[in-house]
Design a protein that fits this description.
There is one protein chain. The protein is mainly α and 191 residues long. The chain has 2 domains: 71 residues, Orthogonal Bundle (Cytochrome Bc1 Complex, Chain D, domain 2), CATH 1.10.760.10; 79 residues, Cytochrome c-like domain (Cytochrome Bc1 Complex, Chain D, domain 2). Helix 3 runs antiparallel to helix 5. It binds heme C (HEC) (2 copies). One heme C binds next to helix 3, helix 6, helix 7, helix 8 and helix 9.
Length: 191
């Protein structure tokens, strides 16, 4: 914060306070709980836990809402989201989206594996939605550099119907084999 002139009128002080950007506001009270699993520095504490630092804000909000509604089933996240109100979810989504995406240092997929993944993208048009460099936007998630094991598990869950909160992704992945999903997970994790 810049130093304020000593004799600044009260009204001006209040105005200055209201101009402090939201990102500088206090952390949402639940953030410490989230970090126990999603990582103090954004690196998740286990391979089946996704990165949420730097993920797109609209997507983070929708997933929290879906966990709470039970549209996306997860024992852990269902219990976490049950404690959150809409405003909490909005604040948490904004807070984590504003963080930098952490480097997980996952290796780039070997060329033969990348070819399988790129063929899937060409036929399905994944990047039509997930955008260039797999960064996504708004309610479409970033996939580049996401945790390998999580990507693999969540694509299999879409395909097998366990993750049913997006019928389009489920229908699309039904056409893929385990080998395709393995290739896509390795390729996306290493991007
Ligand atoms: C006990 C560990 C744990 C805690 C605490 C936890 N999470 Fe999670 N989170 C997970 C796991 C595991 C998943 C993957 C669930 C699945 O797909 O089955 C997940 C998934 C998510 C997702 C979906 C991400 C994606 O790419 O689809 C979001 C968003 C999320 N968590 C946000 C939060 C927030 C915000 C908090 C704190 C309020 C939190 N989590 C607390 C373990 C945890
Ligand atoms: C029509 C647009 C569209 C296309 C095409 C598409 N996706 Fe998606 N994808 C989405 C949306 C939207 C979501 C978020 C669904 C939700 O709300 O849970 C998603 C979610 C995902 C997730 C889960 C990410 C996470 O953090 O949990 C993965 C992985 C994924 N897509 C991979 C792919 C792959 C691989 C392809 C191509 C074979 C593909 N998608 C094609 C729109 C699309």
């Amino acid at each position: 914060m810049p130093r304020l002139p000593l004799r600044m009128p009260i009204a001006a002080l209040l105005l200055a306070g209201s101009l402090v950007p939201a990102a500088a506001a206090a952390d949402p009270p639940q953030a410490a709980l989230c970090s126990a699993c999603h990582g103090e520095q954004g690196v998740p504490t286990a391979a089946n836990i996704p990165v949420i630092w730097g993920q797109n804000e609209g997507y983070l909000y929708l997933e929290l809402r879906d966990f709470k509604l039970g549209n996306r089933r997860s024992e852990v996240m269902g219990a976490v989201a049950a404690t959150l109100e809409k405003d909490d979810m909005r604040a948490l989504a904004a807070y984590f989206a504003a963080k930098p995406w952490p480097a997980l240092d996952q290796q780039a997929a070997p060329e033969a594996v990348a070819r399988v993944a790129e063929a899937a993208d060409t036929s399905a048009g994944c990047k039509g939605c997930h955008l260039a460099n797999w960064q996504g936007d708004s309610t479409t998630p970033r996939l580049a550099g996401q945790q390998h094991d999580y990507l693999r598990a969540t694509m299999a869950a879409f395909r097998d119907g366990a993750r049913a909160n997006n019928p389009w992704m489920a229908a699309l992945l039904k056409t893929y084999t385990d080998a395709d999903i393995d290739a896509l997970a390795a390729y996306l994790a290493g991007r």
